[in-house]
Amino acid sequence: MLNTKQKATRIMLFFVLGILSGFLAKYIDTIPSNGTIGSLINIISNISSRIGIWVFIASIIAAWSRTPKAGAIHVFAFFVGMLLAYYIYSMKLFNFFPTYYFIRWGLIALLSPLAAYIVWFSKRNGWISALCAALPIGLLVSEGYNFFYTFSPVSGFDLIASIILFCILPKNKYQCLKVSIFTILTSVFLSKFDLLSYIIGGL
User: Fold this and answer.
1) Is the pTM of this model over 0.70?
2) What is the pLDDT of residues 133-188, one digit of tens each?
3) Number of domains within the chain
4) Residue 66 lies in domain
């Protein structure tokens, strides 16, 4: 059982991790995309500007937190730190504040505690836990499935991230089967109704 100081320290660590992630994501945007290294940096920049990588990171933070409440707080602290660093850095560099994108990502940050609370249960057994695991995995699949005909590195990353989550979240092969069923349903549902575009627009 962690005491109050230890809990506060963990929250602060995730907040700092978010700050570092936001700073790095924006810094990568400023690197010229010339040559082979520049092209690689450009790919990383495109990945960091999409929702997939942040869903992946948040899912890992949530699943390995001690309690669902802790997972919700840790993920929220991470996103707050990331957003503050990213957009403050943007203002310092360009003297411009992109209100539209800040609101969109701010909406994601506000929804992240609920999503993290749900994902925490993904490492247990049963159909409910399988659904909890399938939600982030299905989202990543829906974002990455077009890799098979576009060969987009960003879509490829989303697919790899979904495979990693599929390998580490279910506890056994029977749970994997349950997760697979819900993952297919989730990815088809998200793709068919294009729900993400209504929530996050063109992010």
Assistant:
1) yes
2) 999 999 999 999 999 998 999 999 999 999 999 999 998 999 999 999 999 999 99
3) 1
4) 4-200
